[in-house]
Amino acid sequence: MQVERPFAAAVATLASMALLGLIDNLVQLIARDIGLWQFHLMRAVLAVAIILFLAVIGMVRIRPIRHWAVLVRGGFTGLSMLIYFGCLAFLPIGQVAAGLFTSPIWVMLISAMFLGKAIGLWRVIAALIGFCGVLIVLDPFRGGFDGLALVPVFAGFFYAIGGIATRQWCEGESTFSMLLYFFLSLGVFGLIGVIVLLIWPQSAPMGAEGFILRGIIWHPSWMSLGLTVVQAVGSIVGVGLIIRGYQLGEVSHVAIFEYSLLIFAAGWSWLLWGQVPQAQAVIGIALIILSGAVISIRSHRA
């Protein structure tokens, strides 16, 4: 039986969100120079090399107890982050994070449909409030319907599956074994994208607009290389803290503290780029946080 340590889980999750909010704001600079697939491939190679080095010198354990569970968990979480980072090229980080944080709603629905957990009226109401908050932040109907604005919601769906898998299937797994498989999955996705674009090259726009369609850049700028290294190291620490949080606390409780990413991301965006959130976005974020808190608390009582 896994012992829960809610305070330690909260501290780990808040520290993770503060760090990830910072380094994710830097992706828009990387997106101006290299492509999404090359970025994930490079970052994964660096991260995997660091993790393997730590394992060789005996600092961490990377051998999974259940290979299949860690592999499935890493694949779904990696797919979530693939969508998340791809969206950062054409949407503000606050909007992308809002889509990602539909995950508690998805956790609730998936748990009810496949794990036999009761939902209850309060959580249904909270889910509707949260969905309204997401629509307010993403605003897909501005100037006519824009389906691309809803793409971050898919990141939330796959992230929810990864969160459930962490708690349901990965009890006793080391943080670094899950980190290794997470980055391996992202590396595979990045390699597939790079190969596809080598075979079928696309005409990518200049700057961040070409992030998703851009193929291999053989001589990226030193800034892009440096920021990719920062992303790799920061992601190991940040994602590792998230995983540790889910191991230390109940999924529904940890999810509440993950909402701080919305605040940290907006705060770093203001400090770095001078981007002040609009009142509409603030209202939407508040509704999302309220929804997630209610869902998490009611899930614990159910």
Summarize the structure.
This protein is mostly helical and 302 residues long. It has helices at 6-25, 27-30, 36-56, 67-87, 93-100, 103-114, 121-138, 151-168, 175-199, 222-248, 251-258, 260-273, 279-301. The longest helix is centred in the last third of the chain and has 27 residues, at 222-248.
Series of secondary-structure elements, N-terminal to C-terminal: HHHHHHHHHHHHH
Number of strands: 0
Structural class call reads mainly alpha
Low-confidence stretches: none
Task: Write down the domain tally.
Answer: 1
What is the mean predicted local confidence, pLDDT? 88
Assign a percent range to the helix content: over 70%
Radius of gyration: 19 Å
Could you give the distance between the termini?
Answer: 20 Å
In one word, what is the shape?
Answer: globular
Largest beta-sheet characterization: none
Strand content: under 5%
* Tally of individual helices: 13
